[in-house]
Amino acid sequence: MDGGAGIDGEGWLSGAERRPSPSQDHRPPGTNIDLLVIHNISLPPGDFSGDWIDDLFLDRLDPAAHPYFQAIAGLRVSAHLLIRRSGRLLQYVPFEQRAWHAGVSRFAGRERCNDFSIGIELEGTDEIPFTEAQYARLAECTRRILRRYPAITEDRIAGHAEIAPGRKTDPGPAFDWNRYRRSIRGEGRGIAPELPLD
Ligand SMILES: [Zn+2]
C-alpha cells in the first residue's frame, strides 16, 4: 500500500521518534494531501542546544525559561516532522492528521494550507547554513513522502515564505533549494536514494 515508503496507515514514518502533539486535528473529509511545506525554527532563535522546540510542539513550553518564550508559550502549533541539526528526526503529527504549521496561508489560490499540506521543520535560522545531516535526512524523508503521497509533485513543495508572503520568511536564504531539489531526484553529493533510516 505504501509502496515501500515506510509510512503506516495513520501516516507515521518509520525511523522517526514519535512525539504525539496535542496541537493537531482532523483534516477536512476527503482531503487530498498535495503540498509539502518547508520551514525553519529554533528556540530560542539561533540556539540549537535545547529541546525547547519539543516543548513548544507538545504545548508545554515554560514561559519563564527564556524571555523569548513569553510571547510564544501557549501558541498551539506543531509540524509533522522536525529535523534537528544532527539529522535526528522527530514526528509530532501523523501525516493523515492536520498539523498547525502554516497559519494564514495560500498556495495556488487555495487558502488554509494546513488542511492539505505536510509541514517539515528544519532546526535553524534564515541565515545560518543548514547541516549536511539535515539535507540528507530531508532528502530521504521527502522521497518517502512523495512515494506515499504522489499528489505532492515536485512543483508542490514550497517554503513557508512562499505561502505566507509578508508574514513569514522561512526557510530563508540559507536554505539551498537547488541542492534540495537535486537531492529529491537522487542527484548530487552523498546521496544514496535507498539508504535506510536509522
Ligand atoms: Zn514556518
From TrEMBL:
Keywords: Cell wall biogenesis/degradation, Cytoplasm, Hydrolase, Metal-binding, Zinc. Residues 23-172 form the N-acetylmuramoyl-L-alanine amidase domain. Its cofactor is Zn(2+). The keyword Metal-binding applies. One of its GO terms (molecular function) is metal ion binding. One of its GO terms (cellular component) is cytoplasm. GO terms for biological process: cell wall organization; peptidoglycan catabolic process; peptidoglycan turnover. It is an enzyme of class 3 (hydrolase). Residues 16-28 have a biased composition (Basic and acidic residues). Its main location: cytoplasm. It is found in: Cytoplasm. Its EC number is 3.5.1.28. Residues 1-30 are annotated as: Disordered. It catalyses: Hydrolyzes the link between N-acetylmuramoyl residues and L-amino acid residues in certain cell-wall glycopeptides. CDD domains: PGRP. PANTHER family: 1,6-ANHYDRO-N-ACETYLMURAMYL-L-ALANINE AMIDASE AMPD, N-ACETYLMURAMOYL-L-ALANINE AMIDASE AMID. Belongs to the N-acetylmuramoyl-L-alanine amidase 2 family. This is 1,6-anhydro-N-acetylmuramyl-L-alanine amidase AmpD. It comes from Thiocapsa roseopersicina.
